[in-house]
Amino acid sequence: MIEVTKVIEWDMGHRVPNHKSKCRNPHGHRYRLELTVGGDLEAAAGNSSEGMVFDFGDIKELMIQHVHDVIDHGFMIYEGDTIMRSFFGNCHDDEFCVLVVPFIPTAENISAWCYQQLRPHFPDSVDIVNVRVFETPNSWADYKP
Ligand SMILES: [Zn+2]
Questions:
Q1: Which residues, other chains included, contact 53 with Cβ-Cβ below 8 Å and sequence gap of 6+?
Q2: How many Å lie between the centroid of ligand 1 and the Cα of residue 12?
């Protein structure tokens, strides 16, 4: 098996409601997703993807469509965060981007969310090997399905 990795970034607000320190404040990050997929090389002669695991351009398109475009410049809020829900509760999608999720939006949980967003869109022959989400340049989480 050969692995390839593609990277995208997006900007997003969040907070960690029960955090003992400053992460309980609403704030934002430039998130970075490094998606590593693996599989056998495409062998069909003359195929556009001959010699590839999965076309980098196609990987990027899936990452943009199912992660970046879902939440870029938006706010990800835990459904149990009653304070944030009260701020954003009456907002509609066409006003601004708020995504309510069933988990606290830590880098760890966001990496698992990215996996769930992406897995259905890759063929069975391609494995998602690692989903790395950077919350800051020095802090990241790895979700290994
Ligand atoms: Zn944060």
A1: 2, 3, 4, 37, 38, 39, 40, 41, 42, 126
A2: 9
Q: Delimit the domains of the chain by residue range.
A: 2-19+26-41+49-143
* Distance of CA 28 from the midpoint of ligand 1 (Å): 6
99 CA to centre of ligand 1 in angstroms? 16
| Inter-CA distances, 117 with 7, 40, 62, 87, Å | 15, 23, 9, 26
Cα 13 to averaged position of ligand 1 atoms, centre (Å): 8
Instruction: Please tell me the CATH code under which domain 2-19+26-41+49-143 is placed.
Output: 3.30.479.10
Cα 41 to ligand 1 centroid, rounded to whole Å: 38
What digits encode the pLDDT tens for the residues 43-100? 889 999 999 999 999 999 999 999 999 999 999 999 999 999 888 865 655 677 889 9
